[in-house]
Amino acid sequence: MSDTTGTQQLWMHLYAILVANSILIYDHLATLPEEVAFIWRRPKALSAILFLVNRYVALLGNIFGLYIDFLPKSSDERFRFQFLHICYFAQRRLSCVKYTICRQLFFFSQGLIVCFVLTIRIYALYGCNKRLLTWIIIIGFALAGGACAGTIGNFSGNATILPGVGCYETYTAEVAARIGLAWVALFVFELLIFILTVYRICKTRGLLRLSLFTRSNAIDIIFHDGAMYFGAMTLINIPNILTYYSGSVNTRGSLATFTSSMSATLISRLVLNLHESMDTGILSTTVPG
């Protein structure tokens, strides 16, 4: 691969990060009035707390990553935080390798938050069925265990600082395949949740009465937002997974930030739309048994 091609792929990677953060921040600002009206000014149920955790962990984590990716750093493999001089962390140095490990942990944590929100939504949709919840938790732990074993236990990417760019990481084919397992596990879990959602609503209302174009009640909102979330994340996550297994060295994992940001953004929208209809949000049990 020529240096020109490698540089172009690097900048495409950075542009994907920039687009992801732009969408995340824009959506945060665009829905801030609804957040204040339906979350902050209403009783803080578990659903509201999960919304805030998902929303602000994603926002703060991605702003931190944006700073690291786009502010030029020195080329001596270590850098200082320039915007926290008055804080404790301004007096310490963070290696590029440690930062990239922290980023992987951030992606993993963000995925766990999303999965937890989806699990609570299904638990409530099935009338707080504890048996179903137990099976979902077992499956979730199995998928998370596989993701941990593949990602954290075998993490050994090549993290370097590129002059004028920032902290940048590449993976060998073996490491990329292991890290890709985490995104495959997330996709499998989201597929399970989507199937359970469609099955429950079809069983209650019938397939012919479902529509993606009407939002007259909470059932329509749950089905519409659930379908939109899964459809969008499928279109986003599959290319992300493919970068780990069939991409070049410079493109492996290049869509990870975009995928994580879009997942957090869409989950926030899903929860906020339910809170617009009812205070219980994802804990609403509107589908009769």
Explain how this protein is built:
The chain is mainly α and 289 residues long. Helix content is 69%, strand content 5%. The strands form 2 sheets. It has a two-stranded antiparallel ribbon. Strands 3-4 form a two-stranded antiparallel sheet. Helix 6 packs antiparallel against helix 7. The chain is globular and about 55 Å long. The model is unreliable at 73-93 (pLDDT under 50).
Please give the structural blueprint.
Elements lengths: L2 H28 L1 H9 L5 H25 L7 E2 L14 E2 H30 L4 H22 L6 E5 L3 E5 L2 H33 L12 H29 L9 H22 L12
Antiparallel strand pairs: 1-2, 3-4
Which terms summarize this structure?
two-stranded antiparallel sheet; mainly alpha; 4 strands; 289 residues; two-stranded antiparallel ribbon
